[in-house]
Each structure stands twice: as C-alpha cells, then as structure tokens.
Write a structure and sequence with these properties.
Bound molecules: alpha-D-glucopyranose
Number of helices: 20
Shape: globular
CATH class of the largest domain: Alpha Beta
CATH superfamily of the largest domain: Glycoside hydrolase, family 3, N-terminal domain
C-alpha cells in the first residue's frame, strides 16, 4: 500500500482535518486579522500548511515542530504570494504581459521560484489568472490583462516557470492558478463584489487561462472570493467539481482564498461554520485558508451527515499527495538550497521591455547635450512604490528610482528634483517650487501616478485618474513651455486624456520592480528601444468602462454619419489607447496582408503573410497581432478575437515579409451547447500593431467542409 494510504489509515479525524487547514503565520497580513496557530495546535497536528511564512529561521522553527513533535511527523506546506518575484522584484504582471513573450514570462517565474524555494517556500499563490477588463478593479495589476489567449499562454508559461521540470526539485515551487473564477467582472469594479456573467462569457473569456494552467500541470487552484450568478465560487459545485475536476480532469489541490469558507456566511448561503464547511468540502475545496471553518465545522458536519468521511479522506489524500510530489516527505529541508543565480540582470531586462511608450512627439529618445533636467513629481524618488502592490519578501530599498537612473545615465547633466505634491494628499504648497525648477531647464520629467497600494487587492478606485493634486502640478509644469516627458507609475490604465494631449511624451512605467529607474533611463535615453505593448485597453473616459477590443457586435455598429448607431453623443467610442498599443522609436509600416489560400478545411494550417517596412534609421522590434472574426456563427462572435502574435525585428530601412500560420481549429467558436465548433463559412482575418480597428489590415477566408451539413 502507498505511503499516503498507510498514513490515511493511521490518521485520526482531527489529524485529517489538520491537513485541510492552512494557518496564518503572522509574518505578513494579506487579509483581515486571523489568529496564528498555537504551537500546541501544531503539535497536535491540527495544521497542515502555513500561509505567508518564509525564511530559514521562521520556516525551520515551525517545520521542526511538525517533524519532531507531532504523532505522525507529516511535514508542513509553506505557501507564499510570489506573484512577480520573491526578493528580486520583476515588473507587475500587467506590465510583464505587455512583453508578449512567453519565454520571458517563464524565465522570471523560474527565477522567482528559485529565490522563494531558497527561503523554504514550497508553493506560491500564483499565477493570478483573472481576465480583467475594468480598471476600477485594482487586481488588474496582478494579472495578464484583458485577453484570454494572452491569459492562456501566460498561465502555461508561469506554471512551467514556477514548477520547473520536477516538482520535487530544490528550486521548484507548486503553482496555484488563481482566483477561479470571474473576479475581474466584479460588479462596478468593486473588490469582492458579485459577478454575473453568462455561461458563454465564462467559457470564452474567464475559464481559458485556467484550462491552460491545468493542461500545463499546475499543482493547485484557488477558488475566488466572489459569487458567479449567485453561487459563491468557494461552494460552486458545477464549476469546481463538474468543470474543473470533471471536465478538465484536475486532480490537484483546490484551496479557498483567505477566510473565504467562513465568508460563505456573508454570502448568505450558509447559516454557520458547519454548513459553510460542508458546502465547501462538497464542492471540492481541499484546503481551508485561515478561516478555521474545517477545524471548527467538519466534525459536526460529519456527525450530521452533511459530509461523508470519504470526502474528508479524498481532500486529505490530495493534500498529502501534493506534499509527496513536492518531495517534502523524502527531504523537507531540500528547499533551503543556495539562492538562484544572479536574477538582477533579468529584472533589468524585463523592466526595460515592459515600458510602454504611449505618445511621443519626437522628444524621445532624449537628445544628446541636455544640460539640465527637472525631475518633478511624487513618484520620482518613491523607491518603496517601485515594487508594486503584491510583494512580501522584497526590500524596496533595493529598488532604483528614475532619479537614480537618470543621474547614472546622464552624469554630465544637472538633474534637479522636486516632489511638488504628494501622491494622494491635498497640499499644493510645493507646486510653485516645482514649477520654478523648470526655469532654465532643457526638459521636465513628470513622475506621476498611484502609490503601490492603490492597486492590487482591496484597491478598487471609482475615479481611475491621477490621485490627489497631481493634475494641478502637471498643468503648472506644462504651462512653463519646457518640453515635458510624463512617466505614469500605476497598476492600471489611468484616465488622463488631457495629459496625453499636452505632454510631449507619455510613458506607462507601471511598477517595474528592482531595476525600475535604470530601465526607464535606458529607454528615455534610447540606449534601449521601447518595445512594451498594452495588454489592456486604455479608456479615454471612465464612462466607457468596461471597454475592451473583443466586444460582441452591436445591432447597429457605430457609424459617424448615422445617429441611430451604437455610439456616445458626448465622447468618442474609441479608447485612448488600443490593446497592443505602444510606440517604438522606429516606425514600421505593415501592408498587404495575404493568405496562401482563400479556402481552408478543418485540420489545415492557414498561412498568412504581411509585408513590413522599417521607415526609420533605428532598429525596429515590433509585435504584430493577428485577429479574426467569425462572420456568421452560432452566437454573435466578437468583432475581433486575438488568434496569435508574431515578433519581428527589422534593421533600419529594412523590408521583410512576415509569415505566420494559424491552425484552422483556432477559429472555432462555442456552439449553442458551448462545445467548440468550427463553423463552415466566411471569416475575416486582421493584422496590425494593435487592436485599433482603423489601422488593421484585413483578408477574407472561407472554411469549407465537404461533409458540411447545411447550416442555416
Ligand atoms: C488574499 C488574496 C490571494 C492571496 C491570499 C493569500 O486575500 O485574495 O490572492 O493569495 O489572500 O495571501
């Protein structure tokens, strides 16, 4: 009999429930206060996992109790939020998604895993796979943006990166695909609020990244806080049991989110902890994160026949199997190996490439010979903000600021600095001095945006614009007539049409992590080309939210000349910046999208070609997006669906033909039963440097199927 079955046969009910209990460590608070477990509780085997404890001292102390003082010596599982770096912080995921580079996504996760494992961590609560289309929702910062194909590739890359080739390796940590599912569609963008999306939208938009994570072998899934169509995800039998475990065949650990089992009472679906524990266990949730509901409620739930012992055994078996796969039974100390090789270079490379140049009148790259630059704004020297909203073990003092970066990159240039205003407060007494700094300056660099904790969890904002009195500061500097480069540090698009209009250049610098300042200076000076592209549509006005490129067609698509069409009477429909937008210092022109054959059959590979020309004297690195639209489908297909992207590099003045191949099956849609189906008929293909429909190249293709049943 296997080790796990032998163990289960020996375990008491309390010890089994202990394996289903994750307790807080007190080292980092990521939710409302919860009591840490007593050492007595640990000794009785009432805790099987610890939330957010890391470091040799802390983890060894707790692990020693489990291994030396409990009856069965079952090792503890240490889980920590390692979203985009552990000690060495990489750009926030929303920024990193904009590299459109799965290999890089995997590399940063691999590096983060090695650092975390060296700190005794065996599982991360990442990747965060919430498709997000509402910038009021602060957690957009933690994910891959708005598109499910990007999400699926991000999910697979991050799962591979965190877990490596062998989950028992000393530098591997278990990946947790979270938050399953739909949180990005929270009502009015408000954190923890209810979600009400159609079954079709769930399967088209919110589930694909999780499917990809499961197919990539993720070891765990975390259920989301929110309800979907009235059923809290922590108790959602159709999506957890039937879809995730049944249809996708996921047999890893499902965990609740922080205190979420107890919060089934707040959802109004459980009268007490006993009912809450029973609902969650029956839905397939194995691990109770810090609510204590399983420990307090399952014995009674069992006694009242609300759950069966086989449910408890099944959950305990999955947790024990995860520990076995992680090698914790064989060598619980293996993960204290030496930290990974130098990851600070990777942090610099990823930060450089996440920077997104939104507008530029030619002021960038900075010309040689600048004598004086006025660096103004509350984010210029904000070292601690550079790590973004989700970092626990990082030391912000390790981060470089744009002031550091510019001073190092331009040693002969006088770099002056004034904050002018703070990030959020109302004091404008510093605006005058900041403005005065511009006198005699060759350039002003405005460093504006959010504090790191203004995005991430519990950071929904109704007004997704510049907080505090930063606009006043910016307008005062703009009035001086000095050329202005504006850097926006944020975890979401900020709605600043007036700034996009008036600044000489606008750069999305997100929260770039350890090497932020150097990376920004490298791009501003032209030492590195700006290659970041938006993984999210950037609204022009908060009244447009939610706004995303893959919308279903309106019955009367917008037409400027016709009032009776789908448009606003007070602002344009178009976003400020489209998905995929991002300028280079070079200028690439795409022409002549063509397909090898206008007809294709199931199983075919559809070859497309595009001509690209670099019209500039600088090297070009572009991302070309391929979209499609099923013109007649079982359900109205989105006006654009992302099907692939290809990178292209062009030397100055170089022309090239860029080729790509799409599998016919990638054009499938979901039929009336939500099953994937390739519908015979016409498709439109599009190619472009963003989802800006006014600039897309297009071609038509037709799926033919000899045995095609006549379709209405
Ligand atoms: C938080 C977050 C989740 C995180 C967990 C543990 O509430 O929702 O993303 O992994 O608690 O810190």
């Amino acid at each position: 009999m296997s080790r796990i079955e032998n163990l289960l046969g020996e375990m008491t009910l309390a010890e089994k429930i202990g394996q289903l209990t994750m307790a807080p460590s007190g080292q980092a608070a990521t939710g409302p206060f919860r009591d840490e477990p007593t050492r007595e509780a640990l000794r009785r085997g009432e805790v099987g996992a610890i939330l957010n404890s890391w470091g040799v001292e802390a983890t060894r102390d707790l692990q020693s109790i489990a291994l030396e003082e409990t009856r069965l010596k079952i090792p503890l599982l240490f889980g920590v939020d390692v979203l985009h770096g552990h000690k060495t912080i990489f750009p926030i995921p929303l920024a990193e998604a904009g590299l459109f580079d799965p290999a890089l996504w995997e590399r940063t996760a691999r590096a983060a895993a090695a650092e975390a494992a060296a700190d005794g961590v065996a599982l991360t609560f990442a990747p965060m796979l919430d498709t997000a289309r509402d910038p009021r929702w602060g957690r957009m910062a933690e994910g891959f943006g708005e598109d499910p194909l990007v999400g699926a590739r991000f999910a697979a890359a991050k799962t591979r990166g965190f877990q490596g080739g062998d989950l028992a390796a000393a530098d591997a940590i278990a990946a947790t695909a979270k938050h399953f599912c739909g949180g990005g569609a929270a009502l009015a963008g408000r954190e923890y609020a209810a979600v009400d999306v159609s079954e079709r939208t769930l399967h088209e938009v919110y589930l694909p990244p999780f499917r990809a994570a499961v197919e990539a072998g993720c070891a765990a899934v975390m259920a989301a806080f929110n309800s979907v169509a009235g059923v809290p995800m922590t108790a959602h039998v159709p999506l957890l049991r039937d879809y995730l475990r049944g249809q996708l065949g996921f047999d890893g650990v499902i965990m609740s989110d922080y205190n979420a089992i107890a919060e089934l009472i707040d959802h109004g679906v459980a009268a007490d902890l006993v009912e809450a524990a029973a609902l969650a266990l029956r839905a397939g949730v194995d691990l109770d994160m810090v609510s204590g509901a399983y420990r307090a409620g399952l014995p009674q739930a069992l006694a009242r026949g609300l759950v069966e012992m086989r449910d408890i055994d099944a959950a305990a078996r999955r947790v024990l199997r995860l520990k076995e796969r992680l090698g914790l039974f064989d060598d619980p100390w293996r993960r204290f190996a030496a930290p990974a090789a130098e990851t600070r270079e990777l942090a610099l490379d990823s930060a450089r490439r996440a920077i997104t140049l939104l507008t530029n009148d030619g002021v960038l790259p900075l010309r040689a010979g600048l004598r004086r630059i006025a660096v103004i704004g509350p984010l210029a020297d904000a070292r601690a903000e550079m790590v973004g909203p989700w970092t626990l073990a990082a030391d912000p003092a390790q981060c470089s600021t744009i002031l550091d970066g510019l001073r190092a990159a331009l040693p002969s240039c006088e770099i002056l600095h004034a904050r002018g205003v703070e990030i959020r407060d109302e004091d404008v007494s510093g605006v005058g001095a900041a403005r005065a700094l511009c006198a005699g300056a060759d350039l002003a660099v405005l460093c504006l945006g959010e504090a790191a904790n203004m995005s991430g969890e519990a950071a929904s904002r109704a007004r997704v614009d510049l907080p505090g009195r930063q606009r006043e500061l910016a307008e005062s500097v703009l009035e001086t007539g000095v050329p202005v480069v504006t850097l926006l540090f944020s975890g979401r698009p900020l709605i600043v049409p007036w700034l996009a209009e008036r600044a000489n250049a606008l750069v999305a610098t997100w929260f770039l992590g350890a090497r932020a300042g150097e990376a920004i200076a490298d791009v501003l000076t032209g030492r590195v080309e700006p290659t970041g592209r938006l993984a999210i549509t950037w609204p022009r006005d908060r009244g447009q939210i939610p706004i995303f490129f893959a919308e279903r067609p309106a019955s009367r698509p917008a037409k400027a000349s016709d009032p009776f069409t789908s448009k606003y009477i007070d602002i344009a429909n178009e976003p400020q910046f489209a998905f995929g937008h991002g300028l280079s210092y070079a200028r690439v022109e795409l022409t002549n999208l063509r397909v090898a054959s206008a007809e294709f059959r199931p199983g075919d590979r559809i070859r497309v070609e595009i001509d690209a020309k670099n019209l500039s004297d600088r090297p070009a690195q572009e991302t070309i997006f391929l979209f499609a639209r099923d013109l007649v489908a079982a359900a109205a297909a989105p006006v654009l669906e992302l099907k692939d992207w290809v990178k292209c590099e062009l030397a100055p003045q170089e022309s090239a033909t860029i080729a790509a191949e799409l599998r016919a099956e990638c054009l499938s849609g979901l039929d009336a039963t939500l099953a994937p189906r390739l519908t015979p008929g016409e498709f439109a293909l599009y190619a472009g440097l963003s989802a800006d429909r006014a600039r897309l190249l297009s071609a038509r293709i037709r799926l033919i199927r000899e045995d095609a049943a006549a379709t209405v």
